[in-house]
Amino acid sequence: MAKTKSGYVCSECGWQTSKWVGRCGGCQQWGTLHEKAPEGAKLARTVAATVPVSGREAQPITRVSGERVAHMPTGISELDRVLGGGVVPGAAILFSGEPGVGKSTLLLDAAARVAASGARVLYASGEESTGQIRLRAERTGALHDTLFLASETDLATVLGHIEQVRPGLIVVDSVQTLASAQVEGGAGGPAQVREVAAALIRVAKESGIPVIIVGHVTKDGTVAGPRLLEHLVDVVCHFEGDRQTALRFLRSLKNRYGPTDETGCFQMASGGIEEVSDPSGLFLSRTEEPVSGTCATVSLEGRRALPVEVQALTATSSTPNPRRVTSGVDSSRIAMILAVLERHTGEKLHDVDVYVSTVGGVRLTEPGADLAIALAVLSSIRDRPLPRDFAAVGELSLAGEVRAVVGGDQRAAEAKRLGYAQFMDAAVKTVAAARDRLLPRS
Predict the structure, then answer these.
(1) What pTM, to 2 d.p., does this model score?
(2) Do 250 and 364 reside in the same domain of the chain?
(3) What GO terms describe the biological role, i.e. biological process, of this protein (predicted)?
(4) Are the C-beta atoms of residues 354 and 322 closer than 8 Å to each other?
């Protein structure tokens, strides 16, 4: 009788191997290989079941109720903006961010505000004791009688707390610290994360209680654990910020109940995290007189237009390879802009050091800031300041042309609202024409 062959398959990407290994050779995930059935073995087949007549039978889409689910506000307007108006009953929300960025502080504040509105809230933490959470709550003013704390790392115990408290909102910090005794492996492993997330999502869907799950991130900024975690939840939010600055941004990467292009702005303070409803003045300098090497632009963060000042400094280089130092902008993008300027404007940049930075620690990643960066560099080279009430938005092509960017009308309206009487966009056609108009040689 022929011997049947067995093997192992990755539950994430489907990669197969004849021997078990700890790390998948396809997606590079750890602990995702499972033994598959031998070739020729008979597999159990799922047969059709009788659909109960209880409203679950298939029906035409035109007969399905179009009633919208009401959002429950958290009391933090910037958080509600990103969530699409608040928390939806029965929703599973994944909240990720780097260590120390302020995830727990923000969610504890949101939990206290929801509790102050009359609802019971359960805050389950596997990383801190209840005493530590109480100290942070006292510092941030997040104390309320209907906010319940639990410090647990066992999934079954957390589910027991949910049945006992019967909350209107659940916050779990974090999914990588919980473990189930029914699943092999330690806390934070792919199998444990999958089981913990599935159990919490099942509670949210069956009971209608919204669940906010905190997730750790890897060194490249993605959510740690199996990719399936992001597919299971309804909303994925990422909290980001630079440790050297107090500014924090909350972005929605996935949202089944609202837009995914909204951005919330927060600021770290001594009393916790404060929301910034109008961050228009955070990224602009306060100089009274115009300074050469500076130019304002209007960046789009989701649906929000933010004015940002770009600063450039050029100096004669004393080395064969001039320095290109950037802060808040992409270094490869700066190299391309400098090449375009030298080729299409005739400016000599091969023998000067160039330093480009943004004000306030904000990071510009969109191409709409190309024109402002180029004009800031040209202003520094010619040592002539741009007008104080001037802002520029546009993308530079390798041919030296200025291209239009998304949201041009919104950017122009925001610039006008902030007092920028002169606004330059793709109407200038080329970067050389922009230089000759603003920075003519004396």
Answers:
(1) 0.76
(2) no
(3) recombinational repair
(4) yes
